[in-house]
């Protein structure tokens, strides 16, 4: 099996705030991420597709096609947007790195028709990233 | 592939420390042959980058596997304060009895972080330099 990874970047604003919490509780739980004016990141997304190369083309999938899927499903949806207000898939969810990665996974799964989606890795900064994969070992977390 | 998903969160931390690779089980000549310049009696140091990966269900109230407001102080207290700007051989008790190779540093850091109460520790990965990295997952 071969894994193929494509990287894209997008920049977006977000804010962590749970309407079920009091303002004090929101500030305590989310710290400066609760700033009412929001803040933003340069997100780096790595999408990995796994599969056997097609003997005729030598490719697991057409990377140009993957590039177009990532542009359409992720960048067009999230780049230079406020994730709390402008991305319907995140409505009602705190737009953490974990939740955004899971939303991206669910957006991409039906679009990847050659190979299978193996991992979505989303960097919020060089020192913080979330990985979303299919549950396999039965011991990890479920989303 | 629309089944249950597994989420993990990885945070990078940094510390700088010195060490010397030297085992009392070997003669000085054997140490020098085995560890080369890493056996220099005066020690040497690295800028270590530590990746801590935790996993678990996303808490719907916070959207998080674990709150960095809890993970960061835990790792700071258990590892960074204990290792940063220290001579590992003499200032981290574990290395009084084991050689502070980055393999052993990985295991010791994993042992210290395993008790993090808010999520499951999945993996510890250390870059000793930009060219060498080590992982331990228990």
Number of strands of chain A: 5
The outline of chain A comes out as elongated
Q: Tell me the CATH architecture of chain B.
A: 2-Layer Sandwich
Count of structural domains of chain B: 1
Could you describe the 3D structure shown?
The complex is a heterodimer of chains A (143) and B (138). With 143 residues, chain A is of the alpha+beta class. Chain A has one domain (2-132): 6-pyruvoyl tetrahydropterin synthase/QueD (Tetrahydropterin Synthase, Chain A). In chain A, 28% of the residues lie in helices and 31% in strands. A 5-stranded mixed beta sheet of chain A has the order 3-1-2-4-5. The radius of gyration of chain A is 17 Å and the shape is elongated. The two termini of chain A are 26 Å apart. The model of chain A is unreliable at 137-143 (pLDDT under 50). Chain B is α+β, with helices and mostly antiparallel strands. The radius of gyration of chain B is 17 Å and the shape is elongated. Chain B is 29% helix and 30% strand. The chains are: A alpha+beta (143), B alpha+beta (138). The interface between A and B is medium-sized, with 38 and 30 residues.
Q: Which tags fit this structure?
A:
A: 143 residues, alpha+beta, Tetrahydropterin Synthase, Chain A, five-stranded mixed sheet, disordered C terminus, B: 138 residues, 29% helix
Summarize the structure.
Chain A is of the alpha+beta class and 143 residues long. Helix content of chain A is 28%, strand content 31%. Chain B has a five-stranded mixed beta sheet.
SSE layout:
The complex is a heterodimer of chains A (143) and B (138).
Chain A: E1 2-14, H1 23-30, E2 39-51, H2 63-78, E3 81-82, H3 83-86, H4 97-108, E4 116-125, E5 128-134
Parallel strand pairs in A: 1-3
Antiparallel strand pairs in A: 1-2, 2-4, 4-5
Chain B: E1 5-19, H1 28-35, E2 44-55, H2 68-83, E3 86-87, H3 88-91, H4 102-113, E4 120-127, E5 133-136
């Amino acid at each position: 099996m071969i894994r193929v990874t494509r990287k894209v970047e997008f920049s977006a604003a977000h804010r962590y705030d749970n309407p079920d919490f009091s303002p004090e509780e929101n500030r305590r739980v989310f710290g400066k991420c609760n700033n009412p004016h929001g803040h933003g990141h340069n997100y780096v997304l790595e999408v990995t597709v796994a599969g056997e190369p097609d003997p005729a083309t030598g490719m697991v999938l057409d990377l140009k096609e993957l590039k177009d899927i990532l542009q359409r499903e992720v960048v067009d949806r999230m780049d230079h947007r406020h994730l709390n207000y402008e991305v319907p898939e995140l409505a009602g969810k705190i737009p953490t790195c974990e939740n955004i990665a899971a939303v991206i996974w669910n957006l991409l799964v039906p679009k990847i028709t050659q190979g299978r989606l193996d991992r979505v890795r989303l960097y919020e900064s060089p020192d913080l990233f979330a990985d979303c994969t299919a549950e396999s070992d039965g011991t990890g977390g479920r989303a | 592939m629309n089944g249950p998903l597994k989420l993990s969160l990885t945070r990078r931390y940094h510390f700088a420390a010195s060490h010397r690779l030297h085992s009392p089980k070997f003669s000085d000549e054997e140490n020098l042959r085995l560890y080369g310049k890493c056996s220099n009696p005066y020690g040497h140091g690295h800028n270590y980058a530590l990746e801590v990966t935790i996993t678990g269900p996303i808490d719907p109230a916070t959207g998080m596997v674990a709150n960095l407001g809890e993970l960061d102080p835990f790792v700071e207290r258990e590892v960074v304060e204990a290792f940063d700007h220290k001579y590992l051989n003499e200032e981290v008790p574990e290395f009084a009895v084991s050689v502070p190779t980055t393999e052993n540093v990985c295991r010791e850091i994993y042992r210290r972080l395993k008790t993090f109460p808010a999520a499951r520790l999945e993996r510890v990965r250390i870059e000793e330099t930009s060219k060498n990295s080590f992982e331990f997952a228990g």
